[in-house]
Structures are given as C-alpha cells and as structure tokens.
Design goal:
The complex is a heterodimer of chains A (about 110) and B (about 500). By secondary structure, chain A is an all-alpha fold. Helix content of chain A is about 65%, strand content about 0%. Chain A starts with a helix and ends in a 12-residue tail after the last helix. Chain B is built from 20 helices and two strands. Classes of the chains: A mainly alpha (about 110), B mainly alpha (about 500).
Chain lengths: ~110, ~500
C-alpha cells in the first residue's frame, strides 16, 4: 500500500509540474490543484499508514493503542479547505484575466511596455 | 489572556467593516480608530513581555504539546506593534489616495484580514496553525493585490498567487514530513525533542523545505522574481502596506525556526544562510539600480534589505540578531515611508516613471523633504535609523569575525545610496523634462499628513535608537537562547 501511494504521489507531482510549465494559464491552475492534492496525499502517508483501524473511538479506554492517528487527517481536511478557497480565487482571477485580455497565453503576462 | 486580542480584535473589526461596506466615511474613521486600538494592545503586550519575559497562553486549557499555544516573545511583540503602527499610517493615507470604488469594494475589511493573519503568524506556537495564519494573511493579500481588476493588476496577481501557492505547498509538505518523524506539531515541544533526537540529520530534509517556503515568502535569492513582478501593480497604499508587513513576517518565521530547529549541522546552515544573504542584498540592489520606475526601484530594494536582516540571522550572536531586529523595525517604517512618498510624487505629477518626472524640489520642497528623510534612512546616513541598523549589524559581523559578509554589506550600502540618489536626482533635482508635459496635480492633505507622520516616526526611531536597541538586545537574547522559549511554553 505504501509503495502504491508513493508512486501515486510521485505521478501527481510529476503531472503538476508538467502542467505548471505549460503555456496556458488555465493549465497552470490545474497544475496548482494537482500540486495541492499530491501534498495532501504526502501528509497522509507521512503521518503513518495504519490500515483497518478507526480514527475515533467512543467509550473504549483500553483500545486507544489500536487507533490510527487522527491528526494527519484533520490537517489534510484543513489543507483541502484552504486549497479549495485559493483555487476558487485563482479560477476567478483567470476568468477576469481572460475577459480583460481575451487570451490565456503566458506571453500576455509579461509587461510589454 | 491579552495575547488573544491581536487575533480576535482584527476579526471583529473585519466583520463590522464587511457589513458597513457602503458607508465610506464610517469605514475610513472606524479603520483608523481600530488600527490605533490594535497598536495600543500590541504595545501593552510588548511592555509586558519586555518586563516579565516570554508570555504563553494555552487557549481552551489544552496543555502545551497537545493544544495550540499562543506565544509572544519580545521580537514578535515588537513586530506586532510596528505592523499595527504601519497600518495606522496606511489608514490615514488611503482615503486620499485610493479611488472610492476600491475603498467601498472591501479594501478596509481586507486590510484587517491581513493584519489578523500577520498577528496570528507572529504569535502562534504551533506549526500547522502557523500555516493557517499564513494562508489567512496571503488570501487577504491576494484579494488586495487584485482589487480593482485592472489588466496590470491581474497580470501581477496571477504571478503572486501562483508563487505563493507553491511556497505554501513546500511549507505543508515540510510540516507533514516533520510530523511523521517526530509526532508533534507544537514548536517548543518539537524543539525540545530535537535537542535529544537520535534520528540524526534526516530532519534537515524537512528544514530545507521550510527554508525554501520562507525564502520564497521573504523574497531571498534565488526566489525573489515574483516580488518586483507583482508589487508595483496595485495602488501604492497597498504596496506600502505589503512592503511594511508581508516579507518581514517571512523573515520573522525564519528567525524563529532557525533559533528553535537548527540543531544539527549548524555550520552548514550558517554558511548557507550567509551566502544567500550576501547574494540577496547585492543582486537586489544591482537590479534596483537599473530600473526607472520608482515603484520598481523600491520593490527591488525590499529584496536587498531582506538580505541584511537574514545576514543578522546568519551571524547568530546576540548583537547580530539584535542589529537585524532593529534593522527590521527600521525597514518596516522607512520602506513604507518611501512608498508613500512615491505616492505623493504620483499625485503631484501623475507618473511613477523617472523619465517623465522632474523639478519636484523646486515645485514643492516639502514633498522633497518627505522623500529625502526615509530615502537617506534606507541609504544609512546618520542620525537616521538606517545608519544605526547597519552599524549594529556590521558591528555584530565584525565581532563574530564574519568579515566577508560584512564587506558585502558595506558595499551594498554604497549602491543603496546610489539608487536613492538616482530617484532624488531624476524626480526632484533635475529640470522638468521639456518634451513631456508634467501634470501639475494636487496632493491630498490626508496623504501628506500620513507621510509626514511616518517620516517623523522614522526620525524618532533614529533619535531613540538606544532604548529601541535595548529592546532588540532583549529580543536577540531570547532568539539566541531558545531554551527560554521552550521552557515558557512547556511550563518547566
């Protein structure tokens, strides 16, 4: 499982970097989304994989040893929410940019004064 | 519990301001009052911390390693006070400079969102919480930099958003890896664990990710290109606020992390940081010298001056750190002041481009003086605070026998003087250009008052360099001896 997840994270990072380097600003945003997801997975794996154990237990005192660590999941939840907000803002930004300049090409980003 | 106020108050102010967005006069008056209250609270915290040592609060009664701790030491309290003071000045400046559309489109609530993020990042004692505060701060700044939506601003903000998002990714990955290795997120607990760590220097991989994240945010070489590409696009009041707060928070975090977490391979980190500091200050100032837009010259200067602050970190003695802290405070004031003076030039002459400016000294000597004071302060002319900042840093460098970086710092000072004199010569001293018509605009009284007040504050910082330096020494001691921080948080 760890091996598979590691490969998945690597592929996600690779795809993100590939998209970030494209000339299209919309693909840049897609790259940012991929980057965010890759990092969320990284947090998940780095927190330690314990399969088949609950993150929350109620009313059981001795079984805390059998719990999986809930903290990385809480962190990922927060990171997902923040990533969602930033992505939404970035998409709006690109939309506005398209409306103003009628293009989503990177060249339009340089200042040709 | 006073330590909760710097976060709660801006939140309350922001909520009030969001709901009263259309009442322009109320917004202006309320935000001015609110920033004064904020400065007062921060100053109270500073006085308390200076007298009684590091202050730590455990909200929700979750004891230290488990809950999120709020910690204020002298450095963070000093930074908070200066940030809120800069906010007062910008709040006086804005009504006369920013157009009404932007002012009613949420400018004021966003400023307080930014302040909440900055204060939170300065006083949190938890790694992940620090990331959240950074995002609060950055999200506000994203909207502020795009506010108004002109094509130029949109260009700048796409770059700004992208690079900051990527830097945040580095930050979160580092937190994840570090948590996986140590099982804690509390900064003091983490620092204590590292001091008895058996796992060797694997921790350095996470530290390097942190370092990249913060050097992007504070615009160190080689991660600085986003700053001059985006900072000049919004109205200059917003740029001034950014220049006075954002990059400095990155520098602050770097100080905090270096003090707490760099336990292994200290020699490597010291050489690494000193090299980057030297490159940053030199390359920044050289690139500033080749620009002709006032805002761009000043933006490149931010980079160069971040180099000085990080140099103090690389020296890492009490006097070096204290010099860097004093320099940071000076820079927050003087840098904001030069940007505001640039705003006055714009109101007077309708341009930021030095080619289309001239004769401003003859036209209005007062405006020229308002630029002259902070510019000479940045260049390091006594008795202005820039001189003392550089003096203490260079003295610290000599005492620590870091001769090379000290030489670079002195050389950079010369170039800084050169590019400040360039603005002075072109905009104020030379005759009006004959082929272009220079606009003869009016300077709004509020912008003039704000700039004059800040110039006065810059002079006072130079006059009272002794007492401020004493506070900085106190802060420097706390940075150099991280045990004080660890013990205060863990209640040992």
């Amino acid at each position: 499982m760890l091996f598979l997840l590691a490969i998945l994270i690597g592929v996600l990072y690779g795809a993100a970097v590939y998209l970030l380097l494209r000339r299209n600003i919309f693909k840049l945003i897609l790259g940012l989304i991929f980057l965010g997801h890759a990092t969320n997975m990284l947090l998940f794996v780095a927190g330690g994989l314990t399969s088949g154990r609950p993150a929350f237990l109620r009313g059981l005192q001795d079984e805390t040893i059998g719990m999986s660590d809930p903290l990385p999941q809480a962190l990922i939840l927060t990171a997902i929410v923040i990533g969602l907000g930033v992505t939404a803002f970035a998409l709006t930004l690109v939309y506005r940019f398209y409306k103003v300049t009628k293009t989503v090409d990177f060249d339009e980003l340089s200042e040709n004064e | 519990m006073i330590l909760v106020l710097p976060i709660i108050l801006p939140l309350l102010f922001m909520v009030v301001l969001i709901f009263t967005r259309r009442w322009l006069f109320f917004q202006q008056a309320f935000s001015l009052l609110a920033s004064i209250v904020l400065t007062f609270v921060s100053a109270l915290i500073l006085a308390d911390v200076y007298q009684n040592g590091i202050m730590a609060v455990q909200p929700g009664s979750w004891e230290a390693p488990f809950g999120i701790t709020l910690v204020a030491d002298t450095f963070s309290a000093l930074m908070m006070t200066t940030t809120s003071f800069v906010a007062i000045i910008v709040m006086i400046f804005s009504p006369g400079f920013i157009d009404k559309e932007r002012q009613t489109a949420g400018y004021y609530p966003l400023v307080f969102g930014l302040l909440m993020g900055v204060n939170g990042a300065l006083i949190t004692g938890d790694l992940f919480n620090l990331y959240v505060w950074y995002e609060v701060m950055l999200t506000s700044s994203f909207v502020l930099i795009a506010l108004g939506g002109s094509a130029e601003q949109l260009r700048g903000s796409i770059k700004y958003v992208t690079i900051n998002f990527i830097a945040s990714i580095f930050f979160v990955s580092a937190i994840g890896i570090l948590y996986g290795q140590t099982g804690t997120l509390n900064m003091a607990d983490l620092a204590a664990k590292m001091r008895t760590w058996e796992g060797g220097s694997y921790i350095n991989s996470a530290l390097m990710l942190f370092f990249i994240a913060f050097s992007v945010k504070s615009a160190l070489v080689p991660f600085f290109f986003w700053l001059p590409a985006s900072y000049h696009t919004p109205p200059i009041a917003i740029t001034a606020l950014f220049a006075g707060t954002l990059t400095k928070v990155g520098v602050y975090t770097m100080f905090r992390f270096y003090s707490l977490f760099v336990v292994f391979d200290q020699q490597f980190w010291q050489i690494f940081i000193l090299t980057l500091a030297g490159l940053t200050m030199f390359i920044g100032v050289l690139m500033a010298a080749s620009q002709f837009d006032i805002r761009k010259i000043l933006s490149f200067h931010i980079i160069s001056q971040v180099g000085y602050m990080v140099m103090g970190l690389g020296i890492f003695t009490v006097s070096g750190i204290a010099g860097a802290i004093y320099f940071t405070i000076h820079n927050m004031l003087s840098k904001t002041n030069t940007f505001l003076a640039g705003g006055l030039v714009y109101q007077r002459s309708g341009s930021y481009d030095l080619k289309y400016l001239g004769g401003l000294y003859k036209a209005s000597p007062f405006l020229a003086l308002l630029f002259f004071i902070p510019a000479m302060s940045l260049a390091g002319i006594p008795p202005l605070p820039g001189f003392f900042g550089k003096f203490f840093l260079i003295k610290g460098g000599f005492e620590a026998q870091q001769y090379f970086i000290t030489a670079v710092a002195i050389l950079t000072g010369l170039f800084t003087l050169f590019s400040m004199v360039k603005i002075w010569n072109e905009a104020y001293w030379k005759k009006e250009p004959e082929d272009v018509k220079v606009k003869n605009g009016k300077v709004h009284p509020s912008t003039f008052v704000a700039t004059a007040l800040l110039a006065l504050a810059v002079i006072l910082l130079g006059v009272f360099a002794g007492p401020v330096m004493e506070i900085s020494m106190n802060a420097g001691e706390q940075i150099v001896n991280p045990e004080m921080y660890i013990n205060a948080v863990l209640g040992r």
